[in-house]
């Protein structure tokens, strides 16, 4: 028996274990450690961004049937954009909100929308009831002076059945097998917080294995360069398709996308830009996609 190889294998295993333990220790302290926050931040953070980043879920998730990635920029100043996702049994809940304005009040509005959405969802409300709960919470606090647009959706991870509603937001994109972009359609019910009383239509779409659902805010496609040219929905969609063809993960695709948007705008955005990608895989697949 080659004891040298066994010793090396043991050292490698211990090194991996030590790295995992160190990572777990960092994650366990992140929620209450100011020292961790100071070490990881590269710039001062606005009050609105401080509120949002303590409310939103992690920007990356990988499960047996779905992978989710999300990003908001500018990360240290983002105000009115918010995303959320959660897993309950075989359902993946997804939501995207865009509040009016770009200041701390916009951050308060977006945070209240996420909190009201979660509260209703956890009490068993359906999508229409959930969006109404968001509307009620906003009108109770602000009258009709503050509002959010949004998409609220449920994905059945067993079947790929997508159920969703549109509250005055940009329509989601579906990348069919990463090659054919499809803009999903659902009659809008109007933004939440303005009490228009429009009927809420619940829409359904079927995702196929390998499809990617894309939720985004207007700051992505309306970002303008020095000559006033928008990044545009066409360029946004083309970028997603081309990088999927390169067989990149959703997380790497999103990282490169947001850098492209920032470069288009010379590194500074006039509006928040938020994107969420959710990929549904064949339920028979056993491996995770990091």
Write up what this structure looks like.
Helix content is 38%, strand content 24%. The protein has 290 residues and is of the alpha+beta class. The strands form two sheets. The chain has a six-stranded antiparallel sheet. Strands 3-4-5-6-9 form a five-stranded antiparallel sheet. α3 runs parallel beside α4, α4 (104-122) crosses α5 and α7 (233-245) packs antiparallel against α8 (250-264). The relative contact order is 0.14. The model has no long low-confidence stretch (mean pLDDT 81).
Count of distinct strands = 11
Oligomer: single chain
Radius of gyration: 20 Å
* Spans of at least 5 consecutive residues with low confidence: none
End-to-end span in angstroms?
36 Å
What is the helix fraction of residues, given as a range? 25-40%
Number of helices: 8
**Average of per-residue pLDDT values:** 81
Strands of the widest sheet, in order across it, are 1-2-11-10-7-8
Strand percentage lies at 15-25%
What is the global morphology? globular
Sketch the topology as an H/E string, one letter per element: HHHEEEEHHEEEEEEHHHE
Largest sheet: 6 strands, antiparallel
Structural class of the secondary elements?
alpha+beta
């Amino acid at each position: 028996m080659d004891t040298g190889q066994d010793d090396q294998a043991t050292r490698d295993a211990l090194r991996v274990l030590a790295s995992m333990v160190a990572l777990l220790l960092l994650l366990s302290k992140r929620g209450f450690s100011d020292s961790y926050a100071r070490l990881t931040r590269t710039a001062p953070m606005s009050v609105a961004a401080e509120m949002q980043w303590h409310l939103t879920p992690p920007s990356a998730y990988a499960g047996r049937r779905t992978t989710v990635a999300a990003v908001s920029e500018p990360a240290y100043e983002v105000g009115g954009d918010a995303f959320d996702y959660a897993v309950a049994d075989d359902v993946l809940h997804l939501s995207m909100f865009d509040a009016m304005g770009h200041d701390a009040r916009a951050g308060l509005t977006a945070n209240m929308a996420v909190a009201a959405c979660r509260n209703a969802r956890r009490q068993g409300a359906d999508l229409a009831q959930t969006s109404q709960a968001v509307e009620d919470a906003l009108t109770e606090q602000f009258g009709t002076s503050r509002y959010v647009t949004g998409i609220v959706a449920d994905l059945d991870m067993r079947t790929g059945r997508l159920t969703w509603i549109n509250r005055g937001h940009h329509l989601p994109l579906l990348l069919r097998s990463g090659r054919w972009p499809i803009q999903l359609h659902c009659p809008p019910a109007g933004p939440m917080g303005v009490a228009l009383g429009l009927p809420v239509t619940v829409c359904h779409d079927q995702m196929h294995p390998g499809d990617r659902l894309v939720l985004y805010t207007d700051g992505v496609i309306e970002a303008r360069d020095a000559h006033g040219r928008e990044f545009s929905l066409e360029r946004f969609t083309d970028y997603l398709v081309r990088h999927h063809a390169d067989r990149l993960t959703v997380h790497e695709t999103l990282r490169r996308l947001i850098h492209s948007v920032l470069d288009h705008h010379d590194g500074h955005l006039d509006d928040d830009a938020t994107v969420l990608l959710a990929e549904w895989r064949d339920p028979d697949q056993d491996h995770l996609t990091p």
